[in-house]
Amino acid sequence: MLRGYYTAAAGMLAQQRRQETLSNNIANALTPGYKADQATLKSFPELLINKVQSKQISSSKGVHIPMMRKIGSLNTGVYVQETIPDFSQGALKETGMTTDMAIVGGVMPDDTGGLFFTVQNAGGDVRYTRNGNFTVDGQGFLTTQEGYYVLDARGNRIATDGEDFTVTADGTVQLAGGNVNVGVAYSANANDLVKNGESLYQLAEGGELLVDARANNAVTFSVKQNYLESSNVDPNRAMTEMMQAYRVFESNQSVLKAYDQSMEKAVNEIARLR
Question: d(Cα 261, Cα 247) in Å, to the nearest integer?
Answer without folding.
Answer: 21
